[in-house]
Batch of 3 targets.
Target 1
Amino acid sequence: MKINKSNIIMLMFFFVTGLFVLNACEEEKEYPRTRLFQPVLNNEEGLMSVENSIIVELGKMKAAEEYFVEVSRDSFVTVDYSFSTDTNYFVIDKTLTNEELLWFTIYQIQVTAIADADDYNSKPSFLGSVRTQKYPSNQGVPGVFDVTDTRAKVLWTPVGKPITGIKVYTIDDERLTSPISEFEVAEEDRAAEEKIVDGLEPATEYQIAIYSDGELRGWEVYTTKPALELGENVIDLTGTDNPDTLAAALADAPEGAYILLEGGKTYNAGGFEFSKSAHFVSGYSFVQSLPIIECGSNFRTVEGSAIAAITFENISFHGDFGGNYVFNIDKSSTVDEISFESCRIHSLRGICRMKGGEGHIGLYKLNDCVVDSINGYGVLTVDKDTWSVGDIVLSNSTFSKIQYFLVSRSNSNSITMDGCTLNEVPDVGRQMFRWRGGDGNNDVLNGVKIHNTIWGHGWDMDNEETYAVKGFDGMPNTVFDIKNTYATSDLEFSGNEIPAFPSFLYSGTAAQLWVDPYVALDYNINDNAFQGKSDSGDPRWRSGL
């Protein structure tokens, strides 16, 4: 059967027309309305700040009537500010918040897109955090040595108007409205470009601001250090520039008082005579150096006094190599303990000498100290057989350029040396240990222990290029206990060698073992092949610790 071409065209026409008719008869489908999409930022940089304002640029949303903005500083535990805006670009500042934003403060921003009906508002969109910029200021940022427990050093650069005042605020006074203390800035302060303010509480945060005739120039946050726990009897000599305050304060100090000295300041020993215990400690300071006791006139003891302890911690001692001591005791007395902890002792005739009267020191101790340039009375000299020292303990310390080391005219109970570094000790031909009393009064009864120590060559004070020393004098019954102790190859004995000393002989010289033992007094280990580099000598110089 043949199909007419015109019939096919007609059939197709009716088919397409039917589809249109069927489609026209079908009801139009309606989709349910949903919330607006959450707003997003329109720039890759994210939120931005200019001075103490925040710039926000959102992606445009045609269906949004406006945007509801919330600002927080604690991740929306609380809301600082909220407002509405009908533009996708806006600046958060006093115009929108009715007060200025805080400087150098982190804010969080979230935005809700608002539709023509509340049911279709977007969910809140967190846009992120941004810090406002720091207040433009010529005030210096405080460093670690610009604050103590009760004082702060305020610094600035001389730009613009001169600084005339300083105000201290609590850390909670965010807008600096109620100062808790104020200070005038004198001409000498302006010349120094700094002023120290006091009266602060320990372990407390403060805001300290500088002003030019009432105009705010800047502020910084200071955190004071915790108070030193020294008890009730504290004589605080920090903050004074008068070197003679020490002796005067000691005269009025109660038994067992702590004498608080300031780093970088000098205090004269003033020939003070002790009759009671005292403890000298380094307080907080604005410099990295230790407080200095100048020994131009030496410490002594009062006739007939019985003293429990005289101790020094983190103190530096200076004096005349030809004539000064820390102690030069010439009166009868007893002291249970004299100790130096983490001290620096430099250029003296001797550290402790008993030269008159009679008495006894129970314990004489140096720990974590650096001692150099000590003349003929050494680290300790018992110069009268009517005096004695019971136990001598030298630990974790460095000794260099010392003519005599330890000397006594009477028996001692013990000598303990542990973790020490020595070089140019003693002078050529002198004894390391000189117990020079008469028969029966020239021994260390419970022996000498030298452990974990490194000993270099003698001190060539006459520049004759000889370095040999003697081991000991007297000590007929003294037992030496030597363990893990090294000597450099240029340590030589000219007599009275110490039995079994050293435990090990280093094959190199002092100059090869240490970085710079002669000029810089740098005893860091220079030879990495040295066997005792990690377990012998003063720990401050050991390798691998």
Target 2
Amino acid sequence: MRLQRLTQAATLLLFLFLLTFAAHPLEEGVPFDLLLRLDPLICLGTLVTCREALWFLLPGLIVLSSALVLGRWFCGHVCPMGTTLDMAEVPIRSGLRLSAKDAPYDGGNSGRSWKYLGLAAILGAALGGISLVHLGSPLSLVTRLYGIVVYPIVNLVGDGALAWLGPWLSRLGFHGPAGMTIPQRVFAANFFVAVLFVCLAMLAYKQPRFWCRNLCPAGALFALCSRSPLIRRNVSESCTRCGRCVRACPTGAIGSDPTSTAHSECIVCLRCVEICPESAISFDTGPRGEAVSLPAPDPTRRGILAAVAAGLTTAGLLRTGIRQPRAWTKERAFTDPELIRPPGALPEPQFLERCVRCGECMKACPTNTLQPVWLKAGLEGLFTPVITPRLAACAVHCNVCGKVCPTGAIRDLPLVEKQHAKVGTAWIIRQNCLVWEQDKRCLVCDEVCPYKAISFQKVPDRVSAVPFVIENRCLGCGWCETRCPVAGASAIRVNIIGELRLVSGSYRAKAEEYGLVFQEKEPTPRVPTPDALRLPEPSPRTTPDTETPEPGTEGLPPGFISK
């Protein structure tokens, strides 16, 4: 097996390992976002958009600078996107052969400038304060593929296999798998992501590694730094010009003359070294024999300026859209009330500047509440994560989303800080509520609320006590909404009223300053105690009597709290 295949397999397995185990409870000290931070496009695009130095993105700059020595080795040996496309192209390209005209570098060079234009457009938008990194970052794209497309399908297949094999294994004496299930995950936009990757793979009918050759903006960054790398392909005088290396090169980096090489397009796969019958090819530090360097693709100055202008224009259009989060001439930005960001998310403008839409937080979320958003946040917010309370709630004792975010769009908060990061406030739709509308007894929202934020009180014309939300106790976690027994739209919903989002500083201190009180309920003891065996005293939760008002709330209408 070739060295490249070994390194590709190792890095893909590492990538899948980090992605799979980026879940709650998170193993401390493991850099689950490591490969994402190695992407130079994520690094450079985020730095330009944010206009601040983010030290944790330094690995991307180190990898980019390594191209000065090793060329585009990252594309050929490390990038999971390239490895995935290589695997997808095996059945597509089986039986297909490049023509003698299209195989060499000087025969299939027409689309190589597109990746430079894409890079210029992304950087142009970044100069305008808009991040379009998610459209071209290979690590962001491939993480999205495996996280919200492949991972749920693997869970589904695995659960079906357990259900089918369980009875057979029980007959053989293995009773453990019979009762096992694999939790299922569902994601919005997964079909769209799958179709995108099918289209990228199908481009192999045109050229091998079409994405890497012609479209990848990160590849363009590497190409700019590897036009004359220190370690490069060299051909000795023993070359017979048989052309085997020309036809085997996956990126077409070798010219019609096998001694010539476009180093900016070479991904150092070493395939030419392995198939050369004369052992005339090597990768070393100096020119030798008849080695010739071919010029890199050179997009026109007019094309580059047009791409930068297109990026700036896109930034201008998004910044003047109605859903843009920066209030310019209006008193406040227009925001969807159900655009509930994960706890610890930066304020919306900074969040959109940093978020690269990789989907790592969505895959890692233990309750599956984080989902990619479509147009609820406008085009600028496409694929960003939102909490979907009707689907699932935010786990109280989980802070994994901030720990796996590679760019700090979601702050890495200690658990005590995360439990004070208010994401919204629940409110009751009385015409949907079984108690308010039909005068039925229902205590579900109170029973599942972790912070005692639901108060049941007597009101006229109702036999049963009705629920009210105590706003300064509500964290917005969504347990009440996801467990509400009403079919369809929940009778209690969370919106962004009262959300707390800080660039820096303590959420706990800010919550205390605002008078927010998030006190968890006492856990029910698993071992019965003498007190637990006693019959409980009648309480407002089980009788229609009026609940004892909170201190300082005497004289206020039902549902109101003192400030």
Target 3
Amino acid sequence: MNNIKYAFLYSLLGVGLLAASSCEKFLDVNTDPNNPTTMPAHNRLIGAITTTSGSSMWRGEREIAGVTQYGVTKLLTGTNRNAETWRFTASYFFWQNAYVFTMPNSADLIVLGKKENNLHFAGAGQVLLALNLGMLADQYGSIVARDFYDGEAQINLLPKMEDQQSAYAYVDSLLADAILKFDGANTTPLNYSGGDIIYQGDVNKWKRFASSLRARYLNHLSKKGNLYNAANILAACQNGFNADGMDAQFAYLAGGQQTDENPWASWGGFTDATNPRYFTWSQFFVNILTKFPVTETSYQDPRISRIMKPAASDGQYRGLRPGAGLAGGMDGGGTFTNEADYGPFSKSGYYTNVTSPFPFITYSEVKLIQAEASLRSGNKADALAAYREGVSANMRKLGVGAVEIAAYWTAQDADGLTAHFDNQTQGLSHIFRQKYITQCLNPETWVDMRRMDYSTAIYGPSLRRPANINNVIFDVGNPNQWIRGMVYETNEQNRNPQAVGDNSEKYRLLTPLWWDTP
């Protein structure tokens, strides 16, 4: 990550830590009342939101976009292809970004909100903290949860790890308590200083944000037998986002510095003409957008033109196979090997333009979670209704008109959609392919692919492991061996080895997380 981007937020963090240190008493004799050493909660909210997006979620997704086969590089050599060929080491920095640069902002926001009796700020801090902890647990498994910096005591450099089940319980408790706090006392409006850049002070939407996240994490337990409770998931969905315009997302700006722009469109090597991190979209994604689930009937989803650009050479949509590079041609076929035969990744459409918002969780995702839980509980009618609304909501968001949406459903119905939902696997294929589209460039997609065991019955026959796969860790001859988790960062491994345990690539990349096992 480009640390310069968030220097002003690190300064906020530094102020918060300074205020909690023993130096504060020494400096009290020279306190300037016009230049306080602590900040009110309303001035901390914007930092907690911004770092959650740019420092945590962006860093947690930058390489995962290669694992989930959204983006593909064009070269067969160099570090840019490491993610898409699963060559991960302890130099992956999501862990540091979340714990050092992001979550202290949320922890301080919680403490300040409580001290000021501004419980809405404390609730917002808990929602953002829960989101960060959830993302960490979904990539690493065991994480530091309750033993993390609490906003008052000094940071523990040798914290205790909690297993993922315990961390998930803590995440759910943070969200449940946040919902109560949004109904509690508050003397300063959430957007008092313009810091609520998500909802502009709308507390009801924050409550629905918290419930939507609860639905997401409860739904992750689909492999855990009795721990998967469809009724609880559906209740959380009911209290979650219930209309367009509620998405929790970070809005990027146009006309400012490069760091104000969506990072998929700008910095980080994406505009390097000689070796962009992701050169084009994958053929797998093109297939998702041009074929119906179950039957593989050809049909061009109207969103494809909103998400990606066609090839300059002939106006066709095509992509590369991960790991094969431009030399491999379309999906490794070797037919199209010129750059002009592929549309660009950066600045190509809704998700990678300069001002493209970066969603934490959306109304569309909530409806598709509802569809899955309804299908698993045997309620076909509700599953179908939620599925249709989840897909339609994403289409509306991407600017697809009513006529195109209606034509899409006419074609799906003619292809046997209703009958497909009589079969759980076929119904899930519809739901998870749509989640792949609607959650584009969100780390949540990797959770879904692991929950579904990278099944071609779900994602279609074009889902394959990458070419030139990391053959030191993965068995080249076993197409069913997929990446399951992430390696802890070097700093944590060296500083806190007893808590980290076995951090070898062989163990970490191949070992399923708690929710990924029966």
